[in-house]
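Fold this sequence, please.
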Amino acid sequence: MIYLNVLSITDLERQFVSNALSGKLCGDGPFTKEASVLFQNATGVADMALITSCTHALELAALLCEIRRGDEVILPSYTFSSAANAFLLREAKLIFCDINPETMNMDERLLPSLITQKTRAIIPVHYAGISCEMDIINALARKHDLFVIEDAAQAVGSTYKGHPCGALADIGCYSFHETKNYIMGEGGGIFIRSTEMRKQAEIIREKGTDRSRFFRGEVDKYTWRQLGSSYLPSEILAALLCAQLIRFDEIMQSRMGVWNAYHNTFEPLEMNGWRRPIVPDNCIHNAHMYYLIAPNNIERTHFIMKLKERGVQALSHYEPLHSSSMGLGMGYKPKDLPLTLEYAARLVRLPIWTGMGEEKVARVIEAVYEACNN
């Protein structure tokens, strides 16, 4: 079976983890600090702080933006539940935005009609590593005095108009989950533009204490300063990520080779009602995912089944949040976001991972054409 995702772990990762085991194990040690430096070298994003997950990065963002009961946040329904949970924990009201079917991102053209006096934040999600239209979103946010919190979980290494995703707004949240391009098992990162917010985040992620200032010698003892939590990943996980970031270009090139092979080969499928990903001219993606849009849900189901028979794992992706049991409980109806509902039922993901190799790529391509022809 050719699986959707396979980990790429080399002797470098094993060596770094072994080194971490002989030193400081809890967070904010040398590997945690080195990961931030390596991330900046690879992406151009400075001051990225490691977090235990992208979920926790979003929760931290909600705390920093002081989201409170009754505040409204706008986000796409076609995304993972983390983006919703982070704000529901602050008792915010979720306002779901329909997608632009060309990119599967939130349709920024719909945002003006969704903004009210209660709106506090917009949460753009860069689906498949392809950026949302951030200039328009940021301009709207400035006009209405809103926060913009990027969910860049899938977009490490992607850019919008030459600028790195995750650093295009007030706060950016990254994922280093094992299903992402660069991994630490479970883990994430956060970029915060405001210096004052960064200082506050440092306290929150250290259980609400100024412990980091104590270790830097800025105070003679540390104390509980405010509400906080435990958002520091261990040095073992940070060591794993450091090795992955050293391999940044290798991983990017390998994944891009698979993505391009698929994209170039599948063009004829569009004559039969299928569709390939669309990458806007102002975006450079990171080959996080390759998907096809089937003509309809019935053909997608048949396609997934036929690929499985040929030893290729292919999967649908998110079930829309607004039509989930949680979303229905909030009063949403499936037909409220018709494009989200339609395209979620047609999208199918194909295997893509570092070191996949030409032989496996060729097998997937052959299986796709056989499944489509049938």
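The mean pLDDT is 96. The radius of gyration is 21 Å.
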